[in-house]
Amino acid sequence: MSNSASELYYQHSGRIGFAPLLVLFLGMPIIAALAAAYSYLVVWCPVIGYVNILFLGGFILASSFVLTTLARIGKSRSPIAMALLGLACGLVAVYSAWLFFIKALFEDQVSLVDLVTNPVALGNAVYFINQQGWWQPSGLAQWAISAVESGAILIGLTMAGWSSTDREVFCEDCGDWCEPFETMRLTPTEALLATNSNQLKPEELLTLEECTESDFPRFDAEVLQCNACKQLQAIRFDRVSQVMDDGQLKEKREDIPGVLIQRGDFG
Questions:
Q1: pTM of the model as a whole
Q2: What is the dihedral of CA 153, 158, 163, 165, to 10 degrees?
Q3: Which helix or strand (DSSP H or E) is residue 45 part of?
Q4: In the chain, where the domains are located
Q5: Residue with the larger pLDDT of the pair 51 and 59
Q6: Residues 6 or more apart whose Cβ sits within 8 Å of residue 114
Q7: What number of CA atoms fall less than 13 Å from residue 115's CA on the CB side?
Q8: Which of 13, 45, 130, 198 has its CA at 20 to 30 Å from residue 73's CA atom?
Q9: ∠ CA 159-59-91 to the nearest 5 degrees?
Q10: Which range, of 78-87, 140-149, 183-192, averages the lowest pLDDT?
């Protein structure tokens, strides 16, 4: 492992790849289709509260999965570019959600084509729904619900784009992502357990003794390797613990910032 600070941690090159084309021609249509499914679910199951939050969360997670998958396929190594693409997808998601929501709500009374080609009519419909309500809330309450929903979608997809490949490692020589190679499980000291994950130094974790997968708490060190040249390896770390959830012990993982990088002949 190199001792040079500039070589110790992996940093993306900032290259955009062809992810914008994939997001534009494939991702946005898929997100629009997810927005249609989300809107019809909201209309068919008009339950204010926990269920609607689940619908919204599911929509954001599904759209984020599409975005992050295309970011990897498109070989984007630019968090800024992917954040902007995430924001653009968020705008498409919000627009499409309103479009299909109005269509689902009024059914045969409105034409989807008319709404798409007449932004004024769409805006009037949005204003009417927020002012008059469509189920129970109306006025300021409905405007607040709409604002929170739209904000969650925009922020969620923007952040998904920004972090889409932040723990991935790209081999610039071979033009491909490194793949998981092996995982080391490490026993933490009391001092490390008391340290916030953001303050941990990944290079120091490699000095810890190994443990088994059944041991908790622990640190997992996942080794990534370029399968083409076998000249590049990287190590990313997780803090792993157990938490009680609904009466059952479940595994909890927390990312530790910083991905170590090393070069050599690993063939």
A1: 0.89
A2: 100
A3: none
A4: 19-162, 170-263
A5: 59
A6: 121
A7: 22
A8: 198
A9: 55
A10: 140-149
